[in-house]
Amino acid sequence: MLGRRSCVQVPVGRGETVGLIPKSQSPLVGVDISSTAVKLLQLSRSGNRFRVEHYAVEPLPPNAVVEKNIVEVEAVGEAIRRAMNRSGSKAKLAAAAVAGSAVITKVIPMPAELDENDMEAQIELEAVNYIPYPIEEVNLDFEVIGAIPNNPEMVQVLLAASRSENVELRQSALELGGLQAKVMDVEAFAVENAYALVASELPVSIDGVVALVDIGATMTTLNVLRGGRSLYSREQVFGGKQLTDEIMRRYGLSYEEAGLAKRQGGLPESYEMEVLEPFKEATVQQISRLLQFFYAGSEFNRVDHIVLAGGCAVLGGLPEMVEEQLGVPTVVANPLAQMTLGPKVNAHALAQDAPALMIATGLALRSFD
User: Fold this and answer.
1) Pair 265, 159 in one domain
2) Arithmetic mean of pLDDT, 254-270
3) What would the pLDDT profile of 216-233 be if each residue is shown by its tens digit?
4) What is the pLDDT of residues 129-170, one digit of tens each?
5) How far apart are CA 103 and CA 54, in angstroms?
6) Is the predicted pLDDT of residue 64 greater than 90, yes or no?
7) Do 107 and 151 lie in a common domain?
8) CATH number, domain at 72?
9) pLDDT class for 1, splitting at 50, 70, 90?
10) Number of domains observed in the structure of the chain
11) Do residue 309 and residue 273 come from a single domain?
């Protein structure tokens, strides 16, 4: 967890983490709190095979979460409780995540000879140099990434820090939903964990550069990965809510009716050409713009593959449009494709929701750290 700076309680993200508490045999449920829904996923494992035991997607009232910031904690807590009831899960412990825009990350060098307590003390001293907030208002955590090349006496340490209120609001919402926060991750790290399940299905070499584009309701997030590690992350205000709003405006529907019509159909014939196609074109432009930001700030000038995730990834013809206009092979993410399903899981519904479950999957995988 992004614990108080006096105690690193639970790991933030990947790899060998300083301050890892003893493993618990209790099941851990991944809870992704997005702008429009709570997405819940619980996995089990037998050998190298994963199984989806419980899952649910529960809509949130409008403006309960705005650009990934919790505004109405009670409404989010109630949605979590409903999702738990619908899923049938009896788990009491949860893994959740804060948005990348709410987290400061920095890789800093540290002497390899430091033990855990000494490293924690040194991190607390170093953190004030990288965090633009009063240290008492910050939750931070860290992990050792590995040795610095050509300098075995030093290691690279990833420092992650977030304003305490970002963490505490999520903890409060989970508690209202009947869950205790065991892990508080960072969304980009959760996506990275889930990407490992998608990467094996891609025809990309280990050094290939992959752009994972999560098109959510209000935010589109680009994560660029190479060798399973994140190189770059950027968020942009754009998402499926703009399509929903246009459906509401044009056809006089309520927010709920527009969302249902978007998923299940039943809109006039004019919808495809006058509403859906322009939205898909705008989505491609947003992806192109995000990639240009990446190219401008890195040594790369192209990516080898694009993977679409999020609720909008399943829009008919979007992968083909992205591939045609950007000239990059494009697929839709399904991190659950190779998993078996428990008896309480609706296979058809899960297949529809899978591209939007990247963060929830990455969080649920934390059960097996």
Assistant:
1) no
2) 87
3) 988 999 999 998 888 888
4) 877 777 777 777 787 878 888 888 888 888 877 777 788 999
5) 29
6) yes
7) yes
8) 3.30.420.380
9) low
10) 2
11) yes
* Candidate from 12-16, 106-110, 160-164, 296-300 with smallest mean pLDDT: 12-16
Length of the chain: 369
Task: Identify whether residues 98 and 165 lie together within a single domain.
Answer: yes
Handedness of CA 219, 225, 228, 233 (dihedral sign): negative
Q: Is the pLDDT of residue 25 over 70?
A: no
Both structure tokens of 277: 């196609």
Look up residue 214 and give its amino acid.
Answer: D
Do 210 and 84 belong to one domain?
Answer: no
Residue 142 lies in a domain: yes
Does residue 352 belong to any structural domain of this protein?
no
Enumerate residues 6+ apart whose C-beta is below 8 A from 97. 32, 184, 185, 186, 187, 189, 190, 359, 362, 363
Please, which residues bridge with residue 32 across strands? 39
Same domain, 212 and 182: no
Q: Are strands 138-148 and 49-59 parallel, antiparallel or unpaired?
A: unpaired
* Cα–Cα distance, 307 to 291 (Å, whole number): 13
**CB 245, CB 340: distance < 8 Å:** no
Alpha helices in the chain (DSSP H): 73-87, 116-127, 164-176, 187-199, 240-251, 255-264, 270-271, 277-296, 318-326, 347-353, 358-364
